[in-house]
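Box S1 | Example of a co-folding query
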Amino acid sequence: MRLSRRNLLKLAGVGSTAAVAGGLGLDVSQAQAATTQIRIARAREYPSVCCFCSGGCGVIAQVMDGKLVHTEGDPDNPSNRGSNCSKGAAVQQTHDNPQRVTSVLYRSPGASQWEVKSWDWAINRMAHLVKKTRDESFQTTAGDVTVNRTEAIGSLGSSILNNEDLYLITKFMRGLGVTYIEHQARI
Ligand code: SF4
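Box S1 (continued) | Returned holo structure for iron/sulfur cluster
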């Protein structure tokens, strides 16, 4: 039998887990066998990419009867070689977590309740507020120096943004005269 790199890493993982459990005097072989069987018995595997950050770690999505039943790191992906961080390990929850927010929620100033809004409404609202704030705060000079800026708007990027996204966002913000441009990779 030809042993692929992926199967080799799987076997290495099983071996090291068994060694640790064996050191504690536990026999986990039956549980391991049952888990593996449940997980892969009828599932089809699809290589995919974690959506949480621009690291681009590979994920194997296991699908059974049209439903995503399990995800795990893809050992064949050169970015992560089978590992996922805690966010990536929970990526299945983007698919079937009932608590996931899937629509725009808006709470108006002073209100205690959230309202469901459309994306068109949200984008128009943001555009209106950005223009209003920029118009009210735009400075052309500071002393004798031409600045053409607004200090009333800031931009905060998140980990899901890649180089190209950030390039465009920075261009857009600079075009508006925004000077506070930041990034936090763990959002
Ligand atoms: S969130 Fe974690 S698993 Fe997902 S791409 Fe980023 S580092 Fe990889």
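The pocket of iron/sulfur cluster is lined by residues 50, 52-53, 55-57, 80, 84-85, 87-88 (CB under 6 Å). The chain has four domains: 1-41, 42-98, 101-136, 138-187.
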